[in-house]
Design a protein that fits this description.
With about 250 residues, the chain is of the alpha/beta class. The chain is built from 8 helices and 7 strands; from the N terminus they run βαβαβαβαβαβαααβ. The protein has 2 domains: about 200 residues, 3-Layer(aba) Sandwich (Rossmann fold); about 30 residues, no CATH class. The chain is about 45% helix and about 15% strand. α4 links the parallel β4 and β5. It is globular, with a radius of gyration of 17 Å. The model has no long low-confidence stretch (mean pLDDT about 95).
Length: about 250
């Protein structure tokens, strides 16, 4: 038996990167998986490649738009027959120093990360409260503590940590656990794009981040997926409102 047999999980922003890694792990452990992504074609391709025993679908959803989120959740309930787990992973970066950052760059990042997590949680809680069961996992970041050139991203991730704790208080009495993971440096297409923007080779960028981490390596989507699988399982039913650092010890400094 798999850890998630009979469970239906939605992972946002899961067409690639960390989200796709979480989707693969959940499918391997028996979950029916819905991949929400702004790119529906890519979401469908990722879902088709999961290879789990249960069903998997890709759904085009703009997590920053309430109507799009509601329609996506309704499709999951109809096609997969339920909803038990939501992983709010969707995210973008629009890095710039404060004096250069546009209002649009600020709004886009806040909307996708923070508003998107709120909208998804709000849509899912209707089902979760009725069935007295649910798992919400939000993706924060070590960047929540502040990072040069990321006032928008850092503010969004810090907001997600506050959202996580508040949802834990509000939804805990209804059988819903809400936690967050704060990844450190994870090797993905998004971090590779940062290397290019900084004028560094991807190899040098990875090495610099590995050298700054006590375990002396960069993280991978599978590292986050392993933590997500635990926090979204019944083994973690007495854990809520927590922010788990999965950063190779980076925050110890």
């Amino acid at each position: 038996m798999g850890r998630f047999d009979g469970r239906v999980a939605v992972i946002t922003g899961a067409a690639q990167g960390i989200g796709a890694g979480i989707a693969r792990r959940f499918a391997e452990e028996g979950a029916a998986v819905a991949i929400f992504d702004i790119n529906e074609e890519q979401a469908g391709a990722t879902a088709a490649a999961l290879g789990g025993a249960a069903a998997a679908i890709g759904v085009g959803v703009n997590v920053a738009d309430g109507a799009s989120v509601e329609a996506g959740v309704a499709r999951v309930l109809e096609e997969l027959g339920g909803l038990h787990i939501v992983v709010n992973n969707a995210g973008i970066t629009r890095d710039n120093l404060l004096f250069k950052m546009s209002e649009q760059e600020w709004d886009q990042v806040i909307d996708v990360h923070l508003k998107g997590s709120w909208l998804m949680s709000k849509a899912a809680q209707k089902t979760f409260v009725d069935q007295k069961y649910g798992k919400i996992l939000n993706l924060s970041s070590i960047g929540a503590m502040g990072n040069r050139g990321q006032t928008n991203y850092s503010a969004a991730k810090a907001g997600i940590e506050g959202l996580t704790k508040t949802l834990a208080l509000e939804l805990g009495p209804f059988g819903v656990n809400t936690n967050a993971i704060a990844p450190g440096f994870i090797a993905t297409d998004m971090t590779d794009a940062t290397a290019v923007r900084l004028g560094l080779s991807i190899e040098d960028f990875h090495k610099a981040n590995a050298d700054a981490t006590p375990v002396r390596r960069v993280g991978h989507p599978e590292d986050i997926a392993a933590a997500a699988a635990f926090l979204c399982s019944d083994e973690a039913s007495y854990i809520t409102g927590q922010i788990l650092q999965v950063d190779g010890g980076f925050r110890i400094h």
